[in-house]
Write a structure and sequence with these properties.
mainly beta, Jelly Rolls, 7-stranded antiparallel sheet, 59% strand
Length: 237
């Protein structure tokens, strides 16, 4: 039986310091059991606003799959596996397979005087296998999304960013003027409104709202703006 649950933007966990406002689908800042709080395979889903020149300094991850979607501004990524940074801009996604261990940093590439925030939606999933070699890849989806009016697979099987987590895929859609797009279903769907207003199966959604769906054959979305969805075939064991 298909079930629907709406999590409003105001109900998301909020964490703030002088440089970052993190709006979280699941509590992720501090000492939390990420797997226990997960929905399907999704352990972390943070929508972060990063002040100019600020961000996250070098820190360590292991045996986790990290996918980042750049909404606004630009993010400068550095990691222990590369000698040069990668600059990510709106319309780009990045996948880090932390594997046996990687150190990385993510900072707003616009300087302190620019007054330009960066916005990034970041998701974490558990890796199928522990201790694999770390890897990093970024891809620009701007041309693919332009005028598509449909969901585009950003990460997962048959995408430019394959994951080390089976049974999971991330999709993004840009819809204009009340457009309609259909997402293939799964055991768990986490639909997030990045910008705009949408409706899905009788539920009205605004920026920052989440629709969590279980056991759905497909999900039809109508509206104007940008939505991001995770479709997952299983939950964390």
């Amino acid at each position: 039986m298909t079930t629907f649950a709406v999590v409003r933007s105001a109900s998301r966990d909020h964490w703030r310091d002088s440089a970052v406002l993190s709006r979280q689908s699941f509590p992720a800042t501090g000492s939390f059991d990420l797997k226990a709080s997960a929905f399907g395979l999704l352990m972390v889903h943070n929508d972060d606003i990063v002040s100019p020149g600020e961000g996250f300094d070098m820190h360590f991850h292991k045996d986790v799959e990290i996918v980042s979607w750049i909404v606004d501004g630009s993010i400068r990524h550095r990691d222990s596996g590369s000698d040069s940074p990668t600059v990510l801009v709106n319309g780009m996604a990045q996948h880090i397979s932390a594997g046996s261990g990687v150190r990385h940093s993510e900072v707003n590439d616009n300087g302190y005087t620019s007054r330009q925030n960066a916005r990034i939606v970041q998701s974490w999933l558990p890796a199928d296998r522990a201790g694999t070699p770390p890897s990093h890849k970024a891809y620009d989806f701007t041309d693919t999304l332009a005028g598509s009016g449909a969901f585009i697979q950003v990460a997962g099987p048959d995408s430019p960013l394959p994951l080390g987590t089976s049974g999971a895929s991330m999709w993004v859609a840009h819809l204009d003027d009340g457009g309609v797009a259909t997402l293939l279903g799964g055991a768990y769907i986490h639909l997030y409104v990045i910008a705009g207003t949408f409706s899905a199966h009788g539920h009205d959604l605004n920026e920052g709202d989440v629709l969590r769906v279980t056991d759905s054959d497909e999900l039809t979305v109508q509206g104007t703006g940008e939505v991001l969805a995770w479709v997952m075939e299983r939950a964390i064991k």
